[in-house]
Amino acid sequence: MSHRFDVNQREQGLKNTLSDLALTDRELFRTQATSVLRGINRTERESLKRLETENLSAYDVLILWYDNLSPVQKTLKSKLTNKAFRSIIKNNLLLDESIVDTKIQDLIDTRLEEVLVSFLHEHYPHKSAALRYAERLLHNSDHDLNKLLSILTEFILYKIVAKENNIIVLDPHASIIKRISCRIRIAFERKKTIQNRNERLSYITRRQSTLLATNNGILAEILDKEWDLVTVISMRNQYEKRVNALPKTDNTAIKRLAIFEKITQQFRDDYIEKTASKKVSLELTRKLSEEVDTLLLKIFDLSNVQKNQLLICSKEYRELKAEHKSILVSK
Predict the structure, then answer these.
(1) How much is the pTM?
(2) Residue 43 to residues 88, 174, 180: CA-CA distances in angstroms?
(3) Which end of the chain is more exposed for a tag (fewer CB within 10 A), N or C?
(4) 293 and 236, same domain (yes or no)
(5) Is the pLDDT of residue 211 over 80?
């Protein structure tokens, strides 16, 4: 059975969902994929394969039916219960009341067969075996054809996503030799996945340690205090702007310190209020205040190059932390 398949907007949402699952939980994806493959047995696959031509897959046939033929068929069938249509047929064909419904049914059936034949001849070589199989298939009910299209779409999408993510999936309807071979490859893949995951976790731990040590461990101190680095850098930028606006004669250490204290006062007060217990001694509160001042001063004294490096390291650290959590969750 051919798997020629162009993912269009209709299937893109499902493909995205499957791709996300493949990335976050390979084993659940593999289990679901195996279940979907089980849904189309060997006989059914052979039947679908008979629908195909050089330029047309079984999926193509069903999509063409869904998009082009099915709407016409539904419109025709709706005429069976259309009172206005019934009246027109009765009056224009001068039909007896007793035979109107039968005559309309005959007309609709004839027209349904005509549109089906027209559809088949448009897409298949005349008198080909594939045309006969397609005709037989398309005589099934809308419900059955829609169900088949849904199953086939999932079948193909799972195969595509599995291939894109190098996930080996057991096909329950493959030969026993292929199934045995597949199980061996899956066992090897699982072993390799665990090895790669452990290596990645080890790298993340090492890299995080390196990032925390940058600029004499400032990032580690910021994270320990659970500060929002963007807020702190914003205060630093305000400080620089105010200092740069000072006349040269007023740009003294005392003036700069006064600007620092004014800009950071609210931040420092809020942090100490949140962190210090109401029963903590004045001595411990003072010590906490000094720790806050010391760290803020370290950040404010960084050069622009060091500040940018701190922001980059902080961003990488957060991303690595999220990845570490994601890896552990997907185990």
Answers:
(1) 0.66
(2) 47, 12, 21
(3) C
(4) yes
(5) yes
